[in-house]
Structures are given as structure tokens and as C-alpha cells.
Write the C-alpha cells for this entry.
Amino acid sequence: MFMLESTACDAENLRGQLHHSWLKNEVLILRPNYLARMRETVSPQRTSFEEKIKPGGKFWQRIDDARRLCEIMTAGFSPAQLVDAGDLAVLPEDVQALMKQVLHDAYLQESGIDGYRRQLQGAVNELAADLEELGKAWFQEPPAEPGVIAAALGRIIVRAQKLSELLTRLPTGIVLP
Amino acid sequence: MKIPRILVIDDQYAVEADLRADLCDRCNLVEVMESTSDLELEVQGSGKLAGVVFCAGQKRSGDQVANSLDEVDRTISAGWPGSTGWRWAMIFLDIRFDSKPNRSEDKSFGLRILEHLVEKWPDTMAAPGNCDLPVVMLSTIPFQERGGQANRAGAHGYTDKADLDEAAVRELLEEHGLIPDSAPRGRPEHRLLIGGSLALLKVLREGRRIGRQKFCNALILGPQGSGKTTLGEYMHAYSGRTGAFVPYYVKPSTANLQYGELFGSWRGAHSEAHESNCGHAEQAHQGTLVIEEVHGLKTDSQVELLQFGRLEGSRRLLRRLGKFPTSPDAAVRQARQSIRGEYDPSRELITVNVLLLATSNYPLDEPVWRAANGFQEPLYTRLATEYAGGPIHVPSLLERREDVPLLFEVMLKRATEKLGGVWPKHVAREVMDRLREIDWTGDIAGLWGIARKVAEAAKSWQEVLLRHLPVAKHFEPSEIPTVVPLPNSAQSTDIKTVTFADALGRLKAVNVTGTRRELHGSLRDLDAAYGQLAQKLLEMALDATPETGDTRKDPALGDLSPTKAIKLLLKVDKLSTTQAADEILRICKSAELIPDNSDLGRVLAWAKKRRRGAKAEKQEPDSSPPTE
């Protein structure tokens, strides 16, 4: 696959943020036992973490972003969008439409992007389900045992790892067929 | 113990407390503020590896977040150097910064910051493209993706966030960090290189680099009293070597004695070798040997040191003076017992594992100096450049003026404790300002002198005031002439009698200017001047060591005792008359101007006669020179 990495692309920005800023920087570095211990006492860091995992918190916003990526990625990495910009934009509309269709079809066939999208959706749903479980264990009264919380965090990391690997397989720019 | 401070420039750490706490817990760090004082850090960070400050590298305004070089500059400036003299020990810099709304620069804003830092704080002592600030990229982006860009932008290192733990941070600090010498590692407190100036911190980093190589040679240059040997000890501490740290000071003695002291000797190698002895090089087996004032080595020792300096893996070879004894049995046993390394009888070589360091306060890195003083070129290459890439320059006190207050406080404390005076003391600001202003020509020793004097003057007082400082003429630079008057010139009539210590001080302090024409043949002129000074010293030594009793050996000498005089000048206990004669001939190399009927003339005649006699004796076997 050839890609135009230097061209601004919303799908790639979203992919990069999810992969780098969220999963790698915030989720994959989590240490279940350390966090389970942290749950035991009130502290600014505990509050900071709870702000992320509570319903509507940052991690849930990221789940929404991941779902949005699933929705836009097929079109977002498509070379068809190149026809709207630059020299090709001056072509007659019917020619532009034909070119877009040809480029998009070729891209779908060669990139296997739809297959990635399905896998990604599955991985996001799995992570969301585990995140919900973690929230229940973390916020329940009386609180869950540290071992239960640590296990829930461990599952999150496994799911995040899978999602991260899928994101690395996605294009990093507009795909040229 | 001074705790180093690390700055983390990262958009996420700066705003998310749980991530910061996690990093601190993983790496045994303590989060502090820019304004935290050294004392506060010492309390908060007890048992911690370092204090850490977080900077977002961004500015927030409502929902908007913008990347900001100004914010980075402001934070770095707080610790470069800090108001109380501290510096960032290391800077961890993220690569990707997410602004709101997103900008195309986000992906690489960390590299943009790095380029800016290289431009603003370039390392002027290194090749262009390097930064004084020790910046290590800290990212989750794989090295393969961004390592090349980070290298081109001037990063000192690159590490993955996920790999960061206490051991990794310690390793990075030791390799790249600017950390003061506060980790004794078995070294006594009084042997630390005190200070936080950039010049000193860089030298300490270089020292750790050499030490961590384990198998290396290094040449340490710097003014007298600047801490060259202490730096050697520091290197030894970081080398993790189990053997001893063995300093050897090169004394001006005979070639055989010098060789024997350094590389050892077998029984019977010379008249003093009553048993086999290992030299300093062998004593340092599994440890570190530092040869102090290496420029004073005689040719034979230089040749052997060249061989000894060759590393074959971790091994070095040395040859003792003389031959391994073959009888009697006791001598053979003793010889075997004296060996510290591994002896190869077929080649008569001993293999040892030694970190080799050499020091000098002469400009050995100047080819002209080496050529003029007989320091072999290959030896310089082997000691200074072959393994270490160049000599290490320990900065003078002038180059690390900002360390003067800290050094003075430590010295004053030690001197006061020794006198049993009042401690703690408050040193008035004007005193510190005054000390900082001085052009330190006498280097650390000069500052020690002032500290001792002040300790005495303010022994019973809690406050040290300007009045406690010694009178200005003892350390005031304006007292020292910038040009030393030349003999036989019009200025020479103005020369006053000075003490030897004063003369030495003036010589060291002299600032010479000269045109190309004036420099032509200048070393020869300097040699001649030096010769005249040496002759004066010899005359003084002759006066100070009159022969007494009926031990006179040569009636022409009267009560002059050339051997005693030379022994005094060389500070040695044993010296043969032939060796003394050689030394006198060397001192009086330009003998034309010495009147025959003067003390010097008579001693010179004796030396010539003695030398001729020694030559004759040499032709007859079994005639070892008498020793005193």
C-alpha cells in the first residue's frame, strides 16, 4: 500500500490519537496491582483515574472516538477525497464522480479496509464491555477486593493491546491504489 | 546528599495526576515544583532517585490547547541554572503533543522543541548540533519510527515510556545526566568533587562514561589542585571494579627507580632490589591505576607505559625490571608470592586487568609542548585518544566560578571543625560576592587558604564578615604582574626578591602576549630562563645543606654537598653521587656563564669529574655506584 502521509487526514489524526495518546500513553502502561492499591486510599491520583473511567469520562470519550473512527475510516483513508482537491477539482463533475468511484473501488479491493473496520469494531466493543466491568468493580459499595479490580484492569490491558495492534495495521495516510 | 532534578516535558503527564503518580512510583521519583528548594527536595526526596517537575509544553485557554515554546523556555530557565544554583540533571521530552484543535505540528512538536533547545543552549564545547541540556526523548512511538529524527535533532538518548523504571532512569542519568558528585559509593565525603557548575557536571559525566567502559585509558588534564586524582577516584567508583584505586605520583628520580616503582622489579634488578616487588601497576590489578604528573616519566617508563596502555580485551601486559630469580629457593618463592596478576614465564610478562588513568597539569594536549619536553607522541595517543577519544579537561576554579560559594562553605566548615570553632556560621552575602569576584589564580588551594584563614579569624563568631577575609594582597589578582619581567631587560632592575612559592605562583599566573616574531624560538628562551631559575635554586640548596664533620670527599668542594643539595631539591631519600652529578649537569646545561670560582662553578666541575669517573666505572663490571 502506498500512502500520502503528509496530506492532512482526519482519520489518521484520530487513529494516531487513539493509538499513541490514549492506548499507549494511558492504558497499556497501567499497572493493575499498583492501581488496585491506589484504590484503597483517597488521593488526587485516584480521583484523576476515576475521572477517566467513570461513565462519560475520558476513556469513554475515547471509546466513542474509536467508534467514530470505525465509521469514517473507509472514506477517511480513501483516495477518492484527492479528486476534490488540487488540480483534479477543476475537472467536470461527472468526470470527477467517475474518477472517485474508480479510485475508491480499487482502494476497497486492494486495502482490505472493510475487513479491518469489522475487526476494529469488534475490538472496541470488547474493550467497552471490559471497561464497564471495571467501572462496576471500582465504584461499587462496598468496594470490590483489590484482586478483583486488578483482574479487571488486566483484562482491559489485554483488550487494549489487541486494539492497539489493529490500529497499527490501519493506513497512516490516504491510500493510493 | 544532593538529589538531582529531572524535567519531564509531556502534554499528558502535566495534566493527569494518575499518570504522574504512576511514573513516580515506577521510577522511584518524587514530584516537586520548580520553586522547591534543595533543602525541601532533600526532605521530600529522601531515599528517592530524583525529583521530577512536569511541564506540558502547552498553554490552555478555555477549551483550546496550544503548543508553546515559551512555556518550555520558561520552565527550563527555572533550572538552568536555578536561583539556588541547581540545574536540570536531565530532560525527558515527549514527541507527540496533542493540541486542541489539532494542528499538523502535533505529531512532531517534541522534535521542534528539541531543535529550539539546541539553538538556544548549544553545547559550545562539542560539534554543532549538540545541546548543553541533556535531552532524552521519551515516547511510546517506536525508536525505529522516530529515532533517526531524534538523533538528527540533537537528542542525547531515546527511550520508550513503557520501559521506564528505576533502573532505566538511573542508567540514563549516569550516561547522559548532569548530576553532582553526591553519591559517595564508598568514597569518603571529603573526597567528593563539590559543585554544580556546568563545566564540572560535564566533566563528571565524562568521568562516568570512562568508568562505565571498564576497559579504557584516559588522560586527565587540569591545573594543580583542580581535582584530577579525585576525578580518577570518581571514575573508579563508577567502573564497579573490585580492586584497589592506586595513585602513583611520578617523582623525579632515576629511570630504574621510577620504572621499578611503577612496573615492579625482580630481586637483584638493581642495587636496592633486595626482594621481588610488584609495582603500582600490578597493585592496581582488578582496580584502577592513576599516574599523577605523567609528564615526569623517564623515557624507559614511557616506553613500557606505551605497551602497558595497549588493551587486549580486558588484559594488559607488563614487564618487571630485571629477571625472575632462579635461586635460592626462598627468593623464587618470594618472587612468585609477589605476583598480583598472571605470570607468563616464557615471555616474562605479567597480565593484569587495570583501568589506566594518567594526569598532568601541563598542556600535554599541545603537540608543541610534547615535542619540546620529550613526551612521546604514541604514548599521548594511547593515553588520551585511542580509547577515550581525547583528554579530559578538569576545569579550573576560574572556569567554575559559580561553585566558589558552595566550595567555600564546605571548606570553611571543615576548617572550623578542625579548629573546634563555632558552627554553623552565616557567611555574609558581601563575602560570597567578594570571593566570586576574585580571579582565582591559585585555584582550589588558594580558596582553601582563605577558608582556613577565615575559620581562624571568625572562629568564635556565628557570622562571617568581610573583615574576616585575609588582606587583599594575599589573593588580589591585581598584585600579580601580567608580564613577568625578563632578566637583562630594563625591567629587571625592578625585580624584587621573592620567595620560591611566590615565584611559582607568579609563573603560573602569568598571561603572555606575543607576536609571531616574538614567539619564534620562544621555547628555547624559556628553557634558558628556566635554567637560570634552576641554578638559583641549586645555589640556595647548596647553602642550605652544608657538609659537616670529616665526611668531605673532595677538598675542592669545601663544605659544599652537591648530593645533599640535589636530594633536597628532588625530595628523595636515596641518591647516588652519579645521579646527583647528572642532575647538576642537567641544571647547568648552559654552563658558559657560571664562574669557575663560584659555588656553582666548583659543584659543576665536581659533577663533570664524577660523570667521567662513572663512565670509567661502567666499563669495569661489578662496580655499583655508592649510595647515600
